[in-house]
């Protein structure tokens, strides 16, 4: 199946982890580092996102995030199509901000 804006997905990971003790800060930091090693990029401080070329690829990365879940805290995982992601409006104050670049995909015929 050809890649298109409805098949390509973005995974968003939202989290609110406790950071009151040194150990909790370490766990939260390790979670952020681990998901970044899996290709997620910071969108906002507690929101990370990753571009995936297919549902199958997204499922692999979602499974990896689930294995990394800390004992405490709240974590949400959401997928949206590239089309839905492209309709998002971002603002810094009242100034509109451009969406992050979509990674380039090499397509072989």
From TrEMBL:
Any GO molecular function: RNA endonuclease activity
Residue sites binding Mg(2+) per the record: 16
Pfam families in the record: CRISPR_Cas2
Any one Gene Ontology BP term: defense response to virus
Keyword Metal-binding: yes
Protein name: CRISPR-associated endoribonuclease Cas2
Source organism of the structure: Pedobacter psychrotolerans
Biological role stated in the UniProt entry: CRISPR (clustered regularly interspaced short palindromic repeat), is an adaptive immune system that provides protection against mobile genetic elements (viruses, transposable elements and conjugative plasmids). CRISPR clusters contain sequences complementary to antecedent mobile elements and target invading nucleic acids. CRISPR clusters are transcribed and processed into CRISPR RNA (crRNA). Functions as a ssRNA-specific endoribonuclease. Involved in the integration of spacer DNA into the CRISPR cassette.
Enzyme class: hydrolase
